[in-house]
Amino acid sequence: xxxxxxxxxxxxxxxxxxxxxxxxxxxxxxxxxxxxxxxxxxxxxxxxxxxxxxxxxxxxxxxxxxxxxxxxxxxxxxxxxxxxxxxxxxxxxxxxxxxxxxxxxxxxxxxxxxxxxxxxxxxxxxxxxxxxxxxxxxxxxxxxxxxxxxxxxxxxxxxxxxxxxxxxxxxxxxxxxxxxxxxxxxxxxxxxxxxxxxxxxxxxxxxxxxxxxxxxxxxxxxxxxxxxxxxxxxxxxxxxxxxxxxxxxxxxxxxx
Length: 256
Hints:
The structure is a single chain. This protein is an alpha/beta fold. It has one domain: Rossmann fold, CATH 3.40.50.1820. 27% of the residues lie in helices and 17% in strands. The protein has five helices and eight strands; from the N terminus they run E-E-E-E-H-E-H-E-H-H-E-E-H. An eight-stranded mixed β-sheet has the order 1-2-4-3-5-6-7-8, sandwiched between helices. Helix 2 (103-115) links the parallel strand 5 (96-101) and strand 6. Helix 1 (75-89) packs across helix 2 (103-115).
């Protein structure tokens, strides 16, 4: 695979999107981070993809350089705003593929269902990671937003190494608001009905993910008319960090 020389490409930056400009690319991959996460989670993916793929990542409000903005209160609010930004800030008709990890899988799905119905836009594929498909109210009732202690206990389970960041006395006040908002958003999120996408769905996960068992990954077959393919990687919930090159290479192969 030919890797891109990021230092030779101009950075692309809008209010909602971060990435590396690739004017000759044939397809654009838009990445959606996990709960409490930010666009920087995908900052080096561009260096691992062939030049035919332009990589962009979504910066949710309420974190990093958007810290002063309020976090989205609902999934509908967040997905509507991101979809509008994609249509506005990416004016060309280059096909789009979406990749989401953990919470980002649900956000990417909601954006995909909106793009699936947008005239003049080509959605090529949805790639989801580390999360089962969304549950309807009939399957799982909406829940109250979890308390901070519940959130931190869950974060420790999913990311034992990274969880120490949330205990840092100087960083915690900056990090917790977005994490609290994202977990509250997910607790209330129950789409009805499920929308069946007209594009294929690729599903990835870690073989030791405490938050999403391997057998749950195939549940995404319920949200597409074009079938799913599942790939399991070695690792836990954040397998995508140590397995980054392997994962990005696999995703790129599905977009070629």
